[in-house]
Amino acid sequence: MRKVEFIDLPNLDKARKRQRIPQTIEFHFNPTKEAVEYFKGKKYFIRTYGCQANIRDEETMCGILNEFGMLKTDNEKECDLAILNTCAVRENAEDKVFGQIGEFKNIKEKNKNVILMICGCMIEQKHIIDKILDLFPFVDIMFGTHNIKDIVLLLSNFIKTHTRYIDVSSYEGDIVEDLPVSRLETYKAFVNITYGCDKFCTYCIVPYTRGKERSRSEEEILKECKELESKGYKEITLLGQNVDAYGKDLKNGSTFAGLLDKVASLNIPRIRFLTSYPSDFKDDVIDVMKKHKNIMKFIHLPVQSGSNMILRAMARRYTKEEYLDLIDRIKTKIPEMEFSTDIIVGFPNETYEEFLDTIDLVKKVHYTSAFTFIYSPRVGTPAAKLIDNVTYDEKVKRFKELVKALEVDFTNIANSMIGKTYEVLVEEVSKKNKDLLSGYTENNKVVHFKGDKSLIGNLIKVKITESHVYSLFGEIVNE
Ligand code: SAH
Ligand code: SF4
Ligand code: F3S
Asked: Of the residues 17, 130, 207, 285, which has the maximum number of CB atoms within 10 A of its CB?
């Protein structure tokens, strides 16, 4: 057995606590001389799973490693350091990571000097650490979401001792400012406005893996946004597990609406935000959205279920009626607003009638797009303790029925776009067809069209010529 040093271990009881007041701390980069010499010019590979919070964390890690003199590679076979940045939200997310760790066995057999680090939300769970220690002796370092700032220290220690390190601080978390960043894109960017979550929906692991809900200061957020503006970024997405809670903890009068108003006043063509929590979504946000043309008229508003019984069991703090009322209020002020959502089917003991309430809600809202999930029990969450009387086959049946209902609206909305011209942010060469480019409309529909690669990162006008359930085809309109 290799020696393991437990610097800090995840602990669910500590992760659940909400007593300590998070501090804002500054990042200091102080690697040892040996470490700088060792890592300079070496290559790192990083694979990220999960949500935008994790993508933004990848950018921070890349920023730190680049400062270290390391170079990023997309080829895991040629790297000196590999990082798997994991997600714990559902079991299938975790299974993918275990598959990937297994593949690294071969890579490490060929080159034993490769350092393998695993971080992210999975590592915040004790049973996962135990499993990795047991099954994958070639994993070198595991660190938690609060420990990203210490990555250089961990690497410096590792090259001296070759000890396996585990460093996962389960606590409310702090706000670390002045972290280096190396962005994955040059035209669209994520900006964290809050970290963590205090909602504790009964099925969800995020409040345990990401700590207490805490807001960055307006000043720091605007500084980051202005820097992106000066670099010519076309789209900014403000990030938080619940953006509507922004400012509550600052106790200085800052609100999400106030922040959004300031960010939208900058010269950035597209502003988006993720994620909104229905009962925290306040009418002043609607007014700010109406005021600024550059705030996209598209809201991701997870409903999770259309049944009041299930919403209560999930500890979601609104009813189906309140959710529909919010949608109505928004549409009254901004008729062109479109919505996407997240829905979980097969929450423990969900009856078929309760499921039909979700179908009914979906038919009333007319979502433009949606993410649908089959409930996945997460160790340590209240819902995971429930005895469930719904079979997996039944859940799959309901899942398919839900997708079918949603696709009616997806198709209708996509069809209604044919013949019209939309602004599209060009993102990449189309994955399915190398001769086409693809980009996103204001309502987040992906459009494929012919065009020169040099258009990537630009906003252009595209006329829609053909629609499918999940994508559109079009042609560039030259004005
Ligand atoms: N803070 C965001 C995102 C949370 S995770 C929000 O509140 O919407 C993204 C989505 O994953 C959730 O909206 C939910 O639909 C889904 N999800 C979370 N935990 C899950 C679980 N245990 N099983 C299935 N889906 C889950
Ligand atoms: Fe999870 Fe609920 Fe928080 Fe979203 S609001 S991250 S679903 S606990
Ligand atoms: Fe996954 Fe963690 Fe995000 S669990 S969804 S990566 S906050």
From this structure: 285
